[in-house]
């Protein structure tokens, strides 16, 4: 068996790009490491993992992080942008429960990559016994995967950020007896799970994310599904304005441009100094 290895590729300003081989995924995973406050002891560093990290350069994420840090608006932070692989629709999803088309079948392997390969590798690389706190965020299907990992492993994470999350992810097709009270996978998983009082959730949706409206109530599915996730979380005692932050953008679309606008809001919400 091939042991996990890493190699640095490039080091542009504010970003170091590496590759880490994953036994679980059987491929090299490209990682962008952003740490504008170089030299901070690992014990005071917060860690943010970002699914679909290949989208961060288009947001000028390194520049944004440097600005927020220099203005002392966020705590010392290491961000790791995890590039999606060619099998994204199978590696992202809800671990152990593929959707009705079998997508997300490798989400459990991706979860193992995060917990058993990436986090130990980061600790080894930085000489860190532990980070001050760990958080996870992502975009679209990557947001669903970040949420699923944090919800199922709350002992590892503090904040969850989901930008235009794919909370429609379902176990039954719409024309095959679909019931949104039973077949939306993440909603059902929250309902059946237990709350971790330290978890905090940032959920963003755009009113122009899509045009689909399953239940014909005049609200697009992306917004409806996100609102219902909030209701499920509130059923566990989480409160808006405390553990929950909900952001709906009237002009928000399902793209990097919108998520780039929201990113500084999320970073200051999660890592305010």
How would you describe what is shown here?
The chain is an alpha/beta fold and 273 residues long. It has a single domain, classed as Alpha/Beta hydrolase fold, catalytic domain (Rossmann fold). The chain has 7 helices and 9 strands. Strands 1-2-3-5-4-6-7-8-9 form a 9-stranded mixed β-sheet, with helices on both faces. It is globular. The termini are far apart.
At a glance:
With 273 residues, the chain is α/β, with parallel strands linked by helices. The protein contains seven helices and nine strands, in the order ββββαβααβαβαβαβα. It has a single domain (6-271), classed as Alpha/Beta hydrolase fold, catalytic domain (Rossmann fold, 3-Layer(aba) Sandwich).
What's the helix count? 7
Structure class? alpha/beta
| Poorly predicted regions | 6-13
Q: What is the approximate shape?
A: globular
CATH architecture: 3-Layer(aba) Sandwich
Broad CATH class? Alpha Beta
Distance between the termini: 44 Å
What do we call the CATH topology?
Rossmann fold
Give the strand content.
Answer: 15-25%
Return the string of H and E elements: EEEEHEHHEHEHEHEH
Give me the count of strands. Answer: 9
For the largest beta-sheet, the strand count, sense and barrel status come to: 9 strands, mixed
Give the oligomer, counting copies of the same chain as homo and different chains as hetero: single chain
CATH superfamily: Alpha/Beta hydrolase fold, catalytic domain
Mean pLDDT: 93
Q: Rg, please?
A: 18 Å
Helix content: 25-40%
The total domain count is 1
Strand arrangement, major sheet: 1-2-3-5-4-6-7-8-9
């Amino acid at each position: 068996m091939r042991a996990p290895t890493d190699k640095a590729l490039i080091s542009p300003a504010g970003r170091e790009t590496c590759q880490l081989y994953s036994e679980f995924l059987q491929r090299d995973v490209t990682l962008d490491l952003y740490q504008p406050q170089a030299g901070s002891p690992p014990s005071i560093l917060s860690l943010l993992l970002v699914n679909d990290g290949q989208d961060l350069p288009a947001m000028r994420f390194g520049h944004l992080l440097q600005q927020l840090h220099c203005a002392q608006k966020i705590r010392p932070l290491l961000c790791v942008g995890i590039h999606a692989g060619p099998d994204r629709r199978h590696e992202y999803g809800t671990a152990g429960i593929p959707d009705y088309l079998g997508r997300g079948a490798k989400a459990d392997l991706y979860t193992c990559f995060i917990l058993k390969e990436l986090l130990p590798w980061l600790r080894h690389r930085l000489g860190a016994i532990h980070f001050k706190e760990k958080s996870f965020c992502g975009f679209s299907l990557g947001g669903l995967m970040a949420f699923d990992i944090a919800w199922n492993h709350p002992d590892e994470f503090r904040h969850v950020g989901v930008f235009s999350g794919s909370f429609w992810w379902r176990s039954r097709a719409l024309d095959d007896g679909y019931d949104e009270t039973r077949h939306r996978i993440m909603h059902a998983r929250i309902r059946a799970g237990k709350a971790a009082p330290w978890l905090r959730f940032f959920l963003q949706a755009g009113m122009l994310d899509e045009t689909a409206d399953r239940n014909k109530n005049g609200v697009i599915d992306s917004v409806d599904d996100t609102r219902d996730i909030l209701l499920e979380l509130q059923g566990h005692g989480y409160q808006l304005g405390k553990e929950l932050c909900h952001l709906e953008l009237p002009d928000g679309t399902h793209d990097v441009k919108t998520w780039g606008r929201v990113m500084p809001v999320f970073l200051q919400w999660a890592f305010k100094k």
